[in-house]
Amino acid sequence: MKNKITSLLFELNVPLNINENPLLLRIIVSQDATRIDFGYSATSRYIKGGWIRMSPEAYIQLDGSAKKYSLKEADGITLAPDRINFKSTKDWQFFTLYFEPIPLKDAILNIIEEENPSPNDFNYYGIKLCMAEGVEFYDHD
After folding, report:
1. What's the DSSP call for residue 116?
2. Burial of 58 (0-12, 13-18, 19+ CB in 10 A)
3. For the ranges 27-31, 66-70, 135-139, the one whose mean pLDDT is highest
4. Is the pLDDT of residue 48 over 90?
5. Does residue 111 come out as left (phi exceeding 0), alpha (psi in the -120 to 50 range) or beta?
6. Other beta carbons within 10 Å of 123
7. All residues at 6 or more sequence positions from 2 whose CB lies less than 8 Å from its CB, including other chains
8. Is the peptide bond before 81 cis (omega within 30 degrees of 0)?
9. pLDDT score recorded for residue 118
10. How many C-alpha atoms does 71 have within 13 Å on its Cβ side?
């Protein structure tokens, strides 16, 4: 039986900016999808912790390429115009976004919720993915 690499896991733990949510936890790149996992912790900055949602138009893009990899599915977060309202500043939410698959090659990834973002949008730029640093997963034929 031959082992076949089906996906690579990248553990990141990258905040949106130095003091903000959500935390970009990991990216899993496979031939079927690009999965991005986040963790969001409600803050005292908003009454009852605020709210979260994701634009259905969100996409990922590789630096140097015009191709946009579309959002295909969201798990644990609603798509705009709906939103998840927190009940307290102690709430938290893990969520996963599934995009079209990107090539399995070294890249700099950008996650774009909105092209002209407000402070409430989740845009991440310059995420370096070095395939040699990914944790391999195998399928057994």
Report:
1. S
2. buried
3. 66-70
4. no
5. beta
6. 15
7. 141
8. yes
9. 84
10. 21
Using left for φ > 0, alpha for ψ between -120 and 50, and beta otherwise, residue 49 falls in: left
d(CA 126, CA 141): 36
Q: What is the mean pLDDT of residues 108-137?
A: 89
Q: Which two tokens stand for residue 47?
A: 């009454």
From the number of C-beta atoms within 10 Å of its C-beta (0-12, 13-18, 19+), residue 36 rates as buried
Q: Angle at Cα 41 formed by Cα 18 and Cα 87, nearest 5°? A: 140
Residue whose entry in the numeric block shows the structure tokens 């070095």: 130
Instruction: Give the CA angle between residues 122, 123, 128 to the nearest 5°.
Output: 125
Cβ-count burial 76-105 (b if 16+ within 10 Å, e if not)? bbbeeeeebebeeeebebebbbbbebbebe
Instruction: Please tell me the pTM assigned to this model.
Output: 0.87
Q: What's the structural domain count of the chain?
A: 1
Structural domain that includes position 28:
3-140
